[in-house]
Amino acid sequence: MKTFVPKLIILTFICCPFYSCETTSQEKKPNILWIVAEDLSPFMGCYGDTINQGHTPVIDKLASDGVLFTRAYATAPVCSASRSALISGIMQTTTGTHNHRSSRFTNGEVVPKELQIRFPEGVKTIPQLMKEAGYFTFNSGKDDYNFHYNRRAIYDVGTEESYKAGMNGWQGNFAEDYMSVTNHVWSSRPDKNQPWFGQVQIMGGKKDSKYVREEEKLKENEVPLPPYFPNISSQRKAWTDHYNANRGSDVTLEKVLKQLEADGELENTIIFFFSDHGSNTSLRHKQFCYEGGMLIPLMIKGNHPALKSGTIRNDLVSLLDVSATTLALGNAVLPDYLDGQDLFGTNYKEPKYVVGARDRCDYTIDRIRTVVSEDFRYIRNFFPDRPMLQAGYRDNKPIVKDFKTLHEEGKLTPYQEEHWFGVRPNEELYDLKADPHQMNNLASNPEFDLILKEHRDHLEKWIKDTDDKGQYPEDAEQLKATYNMWKDRPIFRDAKKNPEYDQFITKE
Asked: Which of 124, 136, 322, 433 has the fewest CB atoms in 10 Å of its CB?
């Protein structure tokens, strides 16, 4: 494992006057809560979405009462890689936790030593650092971390009695009272004067469309479909479902806030509301590095001088900044290996670029890197011969099956045919303001050669400086474990597999 080179941790705040997130020893420390929505793109009124304007009132109020970040990005467009970076404060490609669902094994069993991905000596998770700062910790949602850990060393409550240190099933570890906001959360701390840091989960894009308020559910034809999708029922339903999921997440968020208020915890709690990545119902969002997969909602609200209500920030931020900012707000130690900044510190430096990464997702092997700047998104495809719709976990869903039927019948537009089934370009460059759907690739346009080079150079330097682990083949034992998990399932068994799996297939 690569040794991390210490670097200065910058404590930051962009808005004037500047504030420090640190509290004195005499001040009461704030509670800090991460409300993490699964797979949720910001189709919300506070983000200017005209369809959901007025239909996400709780989210919109949380944003207006605190600080809204309009350009917040996940480190990866898939759960486990993103969450592994968030909980450590280090980019997943640096720690080797970049491949989705790695360092895993059979549910209920300790991960064998040869499959364990371990952090270097001295690296601790954010909850562990908060515990050292005097905080009570919990996570009532899922972990989904791609590294070896002891859940009881991270969280004070909520771990299943049968759990043994080092267990990490294919879906990860879950809290004993999964998604509860009444059991094994803030109310479980023995000393009610002790500050707490916790994580709670709402289902976001995965299930929250079920909770839309009465008479507010959108119908299939009420939402325009982006032109990179064929205008068919399955695509319209999937696209509309995510708008409804945002409306439903407004309801589930409200329940969390009401419980905080009922328990007398709201006033002294700083709330972070964000998602781990973009929409799961769109084939071009989750698992891909366009804006849809990387852009997430982020708002922070609380009784703190840095959190001035009505603040809107347009600077580029990363979920890695959430990790650093949480430690700073809790007056915890910020180790020099952190990749993020304290968003409210006095020495905050607005970044010019934010990097994102996609690697193996379930059994689908790919490597994509992306750099976003104020006006452009650059994408580098390292396996251009593997089409967007290569074999994947959603292949049995109507959105994929119907798409492939149109492809076979020759009924797609030229763009759709090339984009989804053709050879991908080595490089992509999009003007985000002129081309919000990111369909006009400027990488071959000589007018943008300088901009292309600037983004390319930044990525190449970043890969070298961070020793991006995605540039090396995945460990054979890790990949074999993935193969063994999927090999008997028809969706994988009968698919055109990536050649990396050939080494495990018995020749008959």
From this structure: 433
Q: How far is CA 306 from the centre of its chain?
A: 25
**Residue 56 and residue 320 in contact, taking contact as beta carbons nearer than 8 Å:** no
Give the number of other Cβ atoms within 10 Å of residue 434's Cβ.
9
Q: What are the structure tokens assigned to 86, written together?
A: 């968030």
Helices 319-329 and 79-88 pack at an angle, to 10 degrees, of: 30
Contact between 39 and 204 (Cβ < 8 Å): yes
pLDDT value at position 11?
A: 36
CA proximity to 298, closest of 273, 281, 319, 279: 273
- Rounded to an integer, the average pLDDT of 477-487 is 97
- Could you read off the pLDDT of 424-433 as tens digits, one per residue? 999 999 999 9
Confidence of residue 18 (pLDDT cuts 50, 70, 90): very low
pLDDT for residue 13 is more than 60: no
Check: CB of residue 68 under 8 Å from CB of residue 312: yes
- DSSP-assigned letter for residue 39: T
What is the distance between the alpha carbons of residues 279 and 371, in angstroms, rounded to a whole number?
20
Tell me the per-residue pLDDT of 132-146, one tens digit each, with 9 for 90 and over.
999 999 999 999 999
Q: What DSSP element (H or E) covers 261?
A: helix 233-262
Residue 22 has pLDDT above 70, yes or no: no
Cα pseudo-dihedral 159, 161, 164, 165, rounded to 10: 30
DSSP result, 187-248: GG-SSTTS-EEEEEEE-HHHHGGGGPPTT-PPPGGGSPPPTTS---HHHHHHHHHHHHHHHH
pTM: 0.94
Query: Do 244 and 43 form a contact (C-beta atoms < 8 A)?
Result: no
Over the chain, what is the mean pLDDT? Answer: 95
**Residue by residue, what is the 3-state secondary structure of 309-366?**
CCEEECCCEEHHHHHHHHHHHCCCCCCCCCCCCECEEECCCCCCCEEEEECCECCECC
pLDDT band, residue 26 (cuts 50/70/90): low
Name the nearest CA neighbour of 31 among 201, 320, 266, 200.
266
All residues at 6 or more sequence positions from 302 whose CB lies less than 8 Å from its CB, including other chains = 30, 66, 269, 270, 271, 329
Q: How far apart are CA 88 and CA 124, in angstroms?
A: 7
Quote the pLDDT of residue 268.
97
Span 422-445, average pLDDT: 98
Q: Cβ distance 127 to 139 under 8 Å?
A: yes
What does DSSP assign to residue 394? T
Residue 209 in contact with residue 245, Cβ under 8 Å? yes
Cα–Cα distance, 112 to 130 (Å, whole number): 29
Helices (H) and strands (E) in the chain, counts: 14, 14
